[in-house]
Amino acid sequence: MLLVLMLLFGTVVEYLARQEQQRKDMLLVRETTESAARLRALLEMELNAPLQLSQGLVAHVQALSGKASAEDFNTLLPNLVRQGKHIRNMGVAPGNRLTYLYPLAGNEAALNLYYPDLATQWPDIEKTIRSRKAKLSGPLELAQGGRAFVYRIPVYLHDGSYWGIVSTVLNVDDVWRLMKQQAQQLDVGVALRRAGGENWGDMLFGEIQNFQAPAVVLDLNIAGAHWQLASWPLLQADSLSGWFRLVGWSTSLMLVLLIAGVFRANQRWKDTSKAFEQNEKYYRTVLDNVDDAIVVLNPTGQIHTFNNAAEKMFGYQARQLRGLPFQILFPQPPELQQGRGAQELTAQRLHGETLQVELLQTQIQLQDQTLQVLLFRDITERKRIEKLKSEFVSTVSHELRTPLTAINGALALVTAGAVGALLPAQQQMLDIARSNADQLINLVNDILDMEKLQAGKLSLQPEQQLLLPLLQQALQRHSALALSRQVKLTLEAAIAPDLTLFIDGSRLLQILANLLANAIRFSPPHSTVHLRALLTGDLVQLMVSDEGPGVPVDFIPRLFEKFSQADSSDSRLQSGSGLGLAICKELLERMHGSIFYQQAEQGGACFYCELPLHAAPAAAAVQQQELS
Question: 437 and 409 in contact (C-beta within 8 Å)?
């Protein structure tokens, strides 16, 4: 009997040992696959990110119909190299001759290089040109020394003619070093090979045997190249066969230990069950004492959990809703999207009453199930207060504008000499009063515009309008302000004179007025404010840049928020309500456009707006106008 029991126990233990080994093997394969996926994502990001910058340069050349100037390339190439990671240099070769190169230091040998003279590389370059597709070549020995990847894009203009090549040189050693560091952190080995074309199977990194089992092989999605990545575990799964074999062939002492183990396992199960019940009671207590309503949905969207706060908010008992679809809580059910952020919605109580709620959504994993957690917060009172505040601000602003208009009109009459000649000191004081009255009127108008925008009451009147006259008009309106500040205004319009946009012209002038006024106010004397217009694909880009101090880095995230100012102290040098940029953003969005900020090349601020192009422009011609 003991012998049978020992054999039976040994069989069970051997079976469990094999199951455990299989489980560890599967776990190792899964971890290796995840590590390979992370390495693939790293390589794709590190190589594609700098390579996409070349596509932007190609698009620029095509947009200018191949007529890009040396000044364009001398400006664009340094910016692209600084933005791109692992970029050793970038070059432009009109007519296959490397004419523009950055950085030039250390690369002088490559400048003016004529690609057909490269006996070893020209066949591959010529094939790339004929294919009209970008290609990532390498590693190659460079004329300026060293090895690198070279990403070449043949540039064909819109009329189908061949213009030249844009090339980006990436540092091979940087990419390999980053990949090896990541692989070491993941405890896996890594190898790369080509997976397409006549060079299929050529090794880029590692050995060919690295692609054999148990390695995981994944295809890489890298622009202009077909590569495969192999990854294998450096640590093997621990084997328990010796341990279980010893247990299986143990003596009667092991039977005693087995019995003792069974009793011990039974006790631990009881302890675990008790702890689980206590944890469940604890979490239920926490859930029911949260002020916000919490509703948990099962994977099919049915209500699984309903806390006490939710019962009070919606008027239901948890048992009434368990198993019902969550849409019962809304008069118009929303679409649930992970990571969407807070939503303000209208919810519905048991007897049909509605309330305003803020909804936050997240996901949790519970017993291999993905559950949706909805957190509701009653904002009915908050919305009521916001409405009262908005109505109050609007009413006060309207009431202020009437007397301010009268005051400003009276001051204008007095300063114009309607009541007689004024002494210089009187004239100076009246000019100060009129300037401040204008400032107050502008502030009230900004507040009213913002309130109308938020309430959806500000109507636009879009129509097809010529863009160039609007730009000239915007500069003309600010010539006096620029003259008083000793600032020069320039207009550079790389657009067709008859280019039209479907916009509200007066609102576009309001946007440009805000940007130009800000640029002039923050510009030092004898500096220049630039207004530029150019086409980028199906968008028109308007840029206003100055040579002032620029925007502090820590303030940039709040730049387009209401009442935001970089210097909000009482002693700030420049006045303003902090509403101008917020109004610009709202107006542009209503015209299907957008506004962005970046530091200008000369160190100042640069705001640029993008508007959709609804009509095909004629051939672009650069118009330049300068106002001092």
Answer: no
CA separation for the pair 447, 445 (Å, rounded): 5
Both 448 and 474 in one domain: the answer is no
Distance CA 86, CA 84 (A): 6
201 and 91 both lie in a single domain: yes
- Distance in angstroms (rounded) separating the CA atoms of residues 126 and 122: 6
Domain CATH number, residue 439? 1.10.287.130
In a domain, 4, yes or no: no
pLDDT value at residue 558: 78
One domain, residues 274 and 326: no
Residue pointed to by tokens 């006060």:
396
Sign, CA dihedral 176-179-181-183, equals: negative
Question: 294 and 332: one domain?
Answer: yes
Q: Are residues 338 and 431 in the same domain?
A: no
pLDDT in tens, 92-141: 999 999 999 999 888 888 888 899 998 888 988 999 999 998 888 878 77
What DSSP element (H or E) covers 137?
strand 135-141
- For residue range 304-356, list pLDDT tens digits in order: 888 888 888 888 888 888 888 888 888 887 777 766 677 788 888 888 888 88
Q: Domain range holding 365? A: 290-378
- Are residues 403 and 373 both part of a single domain? no
Alpha helices in 478-579 (DSSP H): 479-484, 505-521
Calpha distance 225→4 (Å, rounded)? 64
Q: What is the tally of structural domains in the chain? A: 5
Q: Which residues contact 431 (CB under 8 A, 6 or more apart)?
A: 415
**Could you give the C-alpha distances from 339 to 201, 305, 342, 459, in angstroms and in order?**
41, 21, 9, 32
- Boundary (domain end) residue, out of 429, 455, 481: 455
Concatenated DSSP letters of 391-452 = HHHHHHHHHHHHHHHHHHHHHHHHHTTTT----HHHHHHHHHHHHHHHHHHHHHHHHHHHHH
What pLDDT score does 439 carry? 56
Same-domain check for residues 209 and 354: no
Q: Which residues pair with 543 in a beta bridge?
A: 532, 608
Which residues lie closer than 8 Å to 581 by C-beta, 6 or more apart?
A: 514, 518, 559, 560, 564, 595, 607
Q: Is 439 part of a structural domain of the chain? A: yes
Strand order in the sheet with 135-141: 100-102, 87-94, 162-171, 147-156, 135-141
